[in-house]
Design brief:
This protein has 205 residues and is α/β, with parallel strands linked by helices. The protein has a single domain, classed as DHBP synthase (Alpha-Beta Complex), CATH 3.90.870. The chain contains seven helices and nine strands. A nine-stranded mixed sheet has the order 7-1-2-6-3-5-4-8-9, sandwiched between helices. β1 and β2 form a beta hairpin. The chain is globular and about 45 Å long. It starts with 5 loop residues before the first helix and ends with a helix.
C-alpha cells in the first residue's frame, strides 16, 4: 500500500481528469463530484450509458448534508445509521442536485460514504466528493486488486491509487425513496440486515 500516488490523483481529479481509487469494497473509476464534464468522461471511458445512475461518493454524512441540504429527515436518519459503510443509498433529491448522475430520476440520488482509511481516504477527503463506479468494463469482474483493473481503464486515467487488496464484493444498494426501504442489489451486507438497520433508524425518533 503506497501513498506516493495520492498527490497525482488529487491533482488529476481537480483538473477534471479521471483516477482509479480504492474504496471499502472494490476499486472505483472516479471523477470530481462537482464536475459534470468529468463525469461524462467517466461514462465514456467505461462505456457506460449516460442514463445509468452513478453514485456520488462522499467523505462523510455531514458532507452529504452540506451538498444535498434538502435531504428529508427520514432519509438522513437512514444515512447516519448505515454510513460510513459498504452501502449505496438511493435517497430523495428534492433539489435535483447532481442531476446528471441520475438522468431518468433527477429527484433521486445514489450516495456512498465508504469506511476508508489510508490513501483512498486521503484522496476522498481532498475532494470531498467523487463520482465513482466500479473500475471494470460492463459485465466484468469488480476489481479487488490493481492488477485486476482492465488495461483500457488504466490507459484512460491520469492516476491509479494502489490501496492493496480490497474485499472485492460491491456495496449493497438500498432505495429509501419510497414508503419503505427496499434492497436493489445484494452486496457486502446481507439485504435482510440492511433493511433491519434502516427500519430501526426510521422508528428510532
Amino acid at each position: 500500500m503506497s501513498r506516493d500516488d495520492v498527490a497525482p490523483a488529487i491533482a488529476t481529479l481537480r483538473a477534471g481528469g479521471l483516477a482509479i481509487v480504492p474504496t471499502d469494497t472494490v476499486y472505483g473509476l472516479a471523477a470530481d463530484g462537482e464536475n459534470e464534464v468529468a463525469a461524462r468522461r467517466l461514462y465514456a471511458a467505461k462505456g457506460r450509458a449516460s442514463i445509468q445512475p452513478t453514485a456520488l461518493v462522499l467523505v462523510s454524512v455531514d458532507e452529504l448534508l452540506g451538498r444535498v441540504p434538502e435531504l428529508p429527515g427520514a432519509a438522513l436518519r437512514v444515512a447516519r445509521a448505515l454510513l460510513p459503510g459498504p452501502f449505496t443509498l438511493v435517497l430523495p433529491n428534492p433539489g435535483r442536485r447532481y442531476a446528471w448522475l441520475n438522468a431518468e430520476r433527477p429527484d433521486a440520488i445514489g450516495v456512498r460514504v465508504p469506511a476508508l482509511d489510508g490513501p483512498g481516504r486521503e484522496v476522498l477527503a481532498a475532494l470531498g466528493a467523487l463520482v465513482a463506479t466500479s473500475a471494470n468494463l460492463p459485465g466484468g469482474v469488480d476489481p479487488r486488486r490493481v492488477d485486476e483493473i482492465p488495461s483500457e481503464l488504466v490507459a484512460a486515467v491520469g492516476a491509479v491509487v494502489d490501496g492493496g487488496e480490497l474485499p472485492g464484493t460491491p456495496s449493497t444498494v438500498v432505495d429509501v425513496t419510497g414508503a419503505e426501504p427496499r434492497v436493489l442489489r445484494e452486496g457486502a451486507v446481507p439485504g435482510a440486515e440492511a433493511l433491519e438497520r434502516a427500519a430501526d433508524a426510521l422508528t428510532d425518533r
